[in-house]
Design a protein that fits this description.
By secondary structure, this protein is an alpha/beta fold. It has nine helices and twelve strands. It binds NADP nicotinamide-adenine-dinucleotide phosphate (NAP).
């Protein structure tokens, strides 16, 4: 397949380029293609008429969005809207990526694709607006919600918390937020399968199971042989600008044949990648 990929330098953008080697991928980073510019988006898409467009670009500053919601809406709503407009005109499928944060966390079981979103923050509202635009404007859409992404490359919680262990005598981590930590290469593999199905719709792709940030930290430290003590704290003890859902674990009922490994297997794969020098902390 001919694939146009946006957000090439992000965590997912990089993993997709490593995964989609059987396809002809043209990858654009932010400087090469700003998805908030409709003319540029149209020019890039119509220059190659790809078989599918994958949008891995996003504004991901969850706390920053509270003070700068317009930047969040530009990256997460206007950008996907532009991609949906340009792809729909040419009948090209669009795969867009959204977030577990579109849910409010009131659930006591993992969220599936037919649960109703209710965003709590400006970032989450902008991601939901992006979903709505894609659904409304291009019927040939794959909308993939994922969660708590980390990989050996890029900026993410797993790398930050491993680096902190070298700088602090003790690390404090929130225990009352539960989600689905997801190792990005596992997500990239699932996306590679999905794009050839032509089964358009919304999908929840995350590593299986649920964990708190505290659980994830303990598992990362165990795998990496880090002995720095980890202290569990509550959300009010660790105030942030943006409200996060207390519970946002994801599950899929849409396509149970495309299941990601468990979150613990994600941690093992991450530690292996770091020890093999495929990234640094
Ligand atoms: N990270 C998570 O924990 C998480 C959780 C749930 C869902 N998601 C979603 O998963 C997807 C992939 O996330 P990720 O972690 O791979 O993100 P990432 O590492 O932050 O990468 C996003 C990329 O998008 C680029 N970008 C930002 N604005 C752009 C624009 N207007 N035009 C073109 N490129 C732009 C960024 O470039 P610059 O850095 O140069 O701006 C960056 O390279 C996103 O849709 C994200 O919302 C992420």
């Amino acid at each position: 397949m001919k694939i146009l990929l946006t957000g090439a330098k992000g965590q997912l953008g990089q993993a997709l380029q490593r995964t989609l080697t059987a396809h002809a991928v043209t990858a654009y980073d932010h400087a090469q293609l700003d998805i908030t510019k409709l003319t540029n988006v149209r020019d890039a898409i119509y220059a190659m008429y790809p078989d599918v467009v994958i949008n891995a670009a996003a504004y991901n500053n969850v706390d920053g969005a509270e003070s700068d919601p317009l930047s969040s809406y530009r990256g997460n709503a206007l950008g996907p809207r532009n991609l949906a407009v340009a792809t729909a005109t040419a009948g090209i499928p669009l795969l867009h990526v959204s977030s577990d944060y579109v849910f409010d966390g009131a659930s006591t079981r993992p969220y599936h694709e037919f649960d109703r979103p209710h965003p709590l923050s400006a970032y989450a509202a902008s991601k939901l607006a992006g979903e709505d635009a894609v659904r409304e404007l291009n019927p040939k859409h794959y909308l993939v919600r994922t969660a708590w992404l980390y990989s050996a490359v890029g900026k993410n919680f797993a790398k930050t918390i491993c680096a902190l262990a070298q700088q602090q005598s003790e690390v404090r981590v929130v225990k009352d937020q539960i989600g689905s930590p997801t190792y990005v290469p596992h997500l990239a593999t699932a996306i590679a399968t999905l794009i050839s199905t032509q089964a358009f719709g919304t999908y929840h792709f995350a590593n299986q199971g649920a964990a708190s940030w505290y659980d994830l930290t303990c598992a990362l430290y165990r795998q990496r042989g880090i002995t720095t003590p980890v202290q569990a704290v509550t959300t009010p003890e660790f105030p942030r600008s943006a409200k996060r859902p207390a519970y946002s674990a994801l599950m899929t009922i849409q396509d149970p044949t495309i299941l990601l490994p468990t979150w613990e297997e994600g941690v093992v794969a991450f530690a292996k990648a770091i020890s093999e020098g495929k990234g640094t902390v």
